[in-house]
Amino acid sequence: MSDASPVLATDARRVAVMTVLTVLAGAVDAVSFLTMGKVFCALATGNVLFLSFALAGEGDVPVARPATAIGAFVAGAAVAGVVLKWLADRGRRWFPAGLVCEAVLLVCAGLLALARHGTGPVPAQDDRGVVALVALAMGVRASTALRVHVPGMPTLLSQTAIAELLNDVLRRPRAALRGMTAKQRLARTRWTATVGGIFSGGVLGTLLLVPLGTGRALLVIAAAVLLLAAAGLIVRPGARERVPGGP
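RE: above sequence
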């Protein structure tokens, strides 16, 4: 299967683009957790745990919000998986399409939050529509990142990257980047970018975006995603490559 997005034509571009998307995922979760009633819209694992706490009747966690986020995330990932495959099979630029879809959903969430709550946060007790739209966008992101298939860079979680990075350092504790093969350097760079990206996104979201309020913060994130999509559309198709692990 060919990737018709030249913006992803090299390993360096892949790592750079996926790092930016990872930072944005951290920002999304900072905004969602801190301004939308303590729910994760990108980190699906967190919502699964919140839902388990709620069903067990402990921790004063509502059932509806994590359940809404999980359901919307699954729906977004499923629909995006089908649509992106359809585009890829026809040689279309599926990567920018995935990003545009994600951005449009984030814009809708931001506008809905602004219309209903102004520039403040979304009250924890109501308005699951904003949660659903953001989680839907992150489900689309999950399928887009899965199709790009950059090892160690799923953009939405860092646990595996942390374990891989630690194991690599322990196997070669004295090896600096210059003493490694190109493949080893690339792998370590990917893991580091994933961990650092999630962390940086959380800091960015907390310090810069959360003070803006839910709606405006989501619009800023959507604008960043659209810039990446535009880069994929503006660059002329050149040498196309097969996506590792693609069908």
